[in-house]
Structure formats: structure tokens, C-alpha cells
Amino acid sequence: MNTSMIVNFFRAAIPVISLDSPAPEEQSVLEKICSDVADHPKIKAPVMAWTLADGMRSVTYHAESGISYAEVKGSNNPNHDPILSALSFIEQHQQSGIFVLIDLHPYLGSDPHRLDLAIMRKLKSLCFSLKATKKRIILLGQGITLCSDLSGLIYEQKVELPTSTEIRESFNFCFDDLKNLKFTVALDDEAVDRLVRSAQGLTFEEYWNGLRLATIANNGRLDITASDRIYQLKVEKLLKLNLELSPPPPVEIGGLAPLKTWIAQRTKLFNAAMTRTEIPSPKGLLLVGLPGTGKSLVAKTIGSWWNVPILKLDIGSLMNSLVGESEANMRHLLSTAEAVAPCILLLDEIDKAFASAGSGSVSTDSGVMMRMFGTFLTWMADKVAPVFVVATANDISALPPELSRKGRFDEIFFVDLPNVAERAEILKLHLAKYSAQLQNPEIESLAIASPEFSGAELEAAVTEAAIKAFDSERYPEIMASDVREAIANTVPLAQSYFNKVQALREWAATSARRASEVEEVNRGSRRVSMINN
Fold first, then answer.
1. What is Dmax (Cα atoms) for the chain?
2. Domains along the chain?
3. Element (H, E) at 471
4. Which residues form the signal peptide (predicted)?
5. Residue 320 has what DSSP assignment?
6. How does pLDDT run across 366-420, given as a tens digit for each residue?
7. Rounded to the nearest 10 degrees, how much is the dihedral formed by the CA atoms of 269, 335, 310, 324?
8. pTM of the predicted model, to two decimals?
């Protein structure tokens, strides 16, 4: 939390600011306001906190005992609107003070159903009248979005999630507290590193609670097992934010040699992104191709190769009926991804998610998706945190042109249906999963017998063969004939969407790099006999 910026605002006669803070950090933020802002040599003012439930109370902070409150006489008029009464109290207060108004922002937002014009007007007046005084106001809450009438009057600040360095530093205080309470702390440097990685994306209060829970659950001992509990807390939090932590891939990628080489060449650079700035850090990859060709598996494989978590984002789930909430959800989610960084952010089937954001599309959501799309593009352009974005698309024509233009992603790859060599590799990987002992000539024969099959369809054929072997009580003895029968009973998607496949290949010829080697077909020489009548 950058308290020096708040001090500068107040010294510059900017009397009202908003402070968007995660809810678990409310108490910690209030403590920082007391210790770092109110007690600053250039400020020196008492702090009062207001909530709709408790009214106006004076706040005192002690390093040992924390926050304490006391009622402020004459601040609450039971015969008047409690919010207007609090604002009037601030206006009439004769001494200096920092007034922290907690959770007032819903009445000042862009939602016309909740916006209170009287409260907005009163606060707007205070933005002017308090300039000549030593009274300052902080609007504190989570997800603050103010109406346009207050734009330029109230300076908006955000309490970011702690960085890995801040987490590591705070652990020292946490460990000391546990030791003072006679608990055992048994952590070496490697264990602390794991704890830091697990805590990224959580607030101080969230992972501090997790450490205490882990210590109590482990009979008063804090050791490396605590990282699993902290990690689970993060998983639960991310799910509530519509971010899913994807597991490592069940099998390796089959084929896609050029794409694998491209990824491998950027592994060192991505890992060095936080220390080297002369070379731009890898920022993202757009994968276009038919369903089932392994695009999502690529994202999971990158996370596994780079040893970073994979966050899967469901854009549609961010939509909210309240005005401005969808965009706020997007901003909050992206800032969480930055806090978890380094990481992979997977946007699966982005063509469906952002289809209505295209310039030629008809919007049915009052422009919400267009604004969310704008928020995402701005973040992509401005982000400095090592968040590598992997977006997948099945239909390139549905993507807004702003997203697919050169420079938005590091590269655009076309993931075609696997060629015969790649099909053999994919079959071998999935057969190994069931411990099947097929010989290379048999696998190559199956690859030749499955033209136009996607990786997902090959996997399904192997699974079907395994089920047949199990039913025949000879599993894991899977025979080539089992797989061949499953292939024969499958109609590949590419046959049903022949025109779409051809259109994608024509687009890729001029607009994308191929993720696979182009299969060379040797047609040989043909002798013909011409009849001359």
C-alpha cells in the first residue's frame, strides 16, 4: 500500500480520495492510515472511521494492541439520514481530521438504481469546501466504481495484492509471532520459497489466517505442509473470482514441433523477466484451429515446462447486471493474475467470449462486452507483470480484428489437424497411458488409417479400445485391431466441417505460423497410355 501517495494528495489540497481495498485488508489498511498517514509529520491529524452500522467513531492505533474505537459525541443524528448526517458532521467539524468512510461507495457508483443523488451532491460540495481546511476524507471499500459526476474530483487509489517480496518480508513477522506464542516453526529456505509461491494472489490477512490454521491443524507445528493449505485457500479464492487453476496436462503434446521450439526458445527469457528489461518479456500467444487439436493442452504444457501456475479464465462468468460491475470484475481478476505472476492466463475459445465486441457485430448487452474487451486490450498493452496470455480460437472470423492484429500477441499459430507422423506420436502417448504394448509398425499403420483425425478423436479411439479390452478381460492387452475398429466407427469432425477446415487453412497461409510441419505428399510418377484414334 503506497501511503506516501495519500500523504501527497492531502498535502496538495486534494481533500477526498477513494481507496479500493480487498475486504480482508480493511483493518490493515486502517492501521496503515493511522500509522503512516495520520501520524506523518506534515499531516498530524486524528482519524475517525464511519460505517453505516456503527456511525462515526474515533480510531486509535497501538503497535502492540492494534485498533481501538471510541464513540464521537454529537456525530450521529437519529432523526436524519445517517449518511447525510455523517457528511454534515465532517463539514461542521472545527478541527483537523482524517475521516475514513467505509463502504459508502455503493451510493456513489454508476448504477442508477443505487446512486443517491443527495449523498453524491453533498460529497461533491465537500470536495471543494474542504480544500481550505485540514480535514480529509478517504472512501474505503472493495470494488469502488464512482459515477461520472465525481470524476476528476475524487482521486482513485487501489490497494494491490502483495508482491512476492512483500510476502517474504511479512513472513518474518508471522513466524516471530508464532514463536512468541510457543509454536514451532520448522521451515528451511526451500519451504519458505514454496510458501511464498502458494501465497501469491492472497491478501496478507488471508495467508496469515492460513498459516495460523496450518499450525493449529499440525499440532502447533508450522512446516512445509502449510504450503498445501495456503495453496488450497488460493484455489478456493480464484474459483470465486471465476479463475480456475488448471492441473498439469495428463499427457505430453504430440507433434507440433515448430510450436514446441518457439515455446522452448522463450523459457529462459520468461523466467528472467523480473530481472532483465532490455529484451521484452514474452506476453502471449494466440492459437487458432479446429476443436480437439490440442490448443488448450498447449497452454497447460507451457505452464508445466515453465513451472508456473495456469489460470483459466471464463469471461462470460464475469458478466453482471449492475452497471460497471462486469468491467470491475475484469479489472479485479486481471490484477489478481498479476499478483499470482509469474503465471499462464488461459482464455479458451476467446472467439465465442468476445464475438459481440467486434466492430461489425450486433451487441445485445448494452455494450458491456465491448467495454470488457477494451479493459482487456488496455491491460494487454500496459501489463509489466510476467503473465503470459494463451488465447485459443476455433473461428478466426468471429474475433475482433483489434485482437488478432500483429503485435497484440507475440505470435499467432495455426494448429492444423495432425499429419501422419504426429498422429503416430499422439497414438503412442495415449497408448502408453494404458500401458499398451503395440509395436511401432502397428502404430504407424493406425496413423495411416486415421486421416483427418484430431488429437481428441485419436484419444477417444484409444480409450474405446481400452474399454473393449477391459470388457474382454484382457486389459491392459490392447490390440491394434481394437484401435482400428474404434477408428473405423468414428466420423472425424473435419469431414463434417470440410469447408471450414479449408477456409482456416487458406487464412493461415497468409496470417499465421503453422504449429506443425507441413506434410509432404509424394505422389510418385504415373505412367499413362494415350490412345490416338
1. 118
2. 3-158 (3.40.50), 164-240 (1.10.8), 246-361+368-415 (3.40.50.300), 420-495+505-511 (1.10.8.60)
3. helix 455-471
4. none
5. -
6. 578 888 888 888 898 888 888 999 999 998 888 888 887 777 899 999 999 999 9
7. -140
8. 0.74
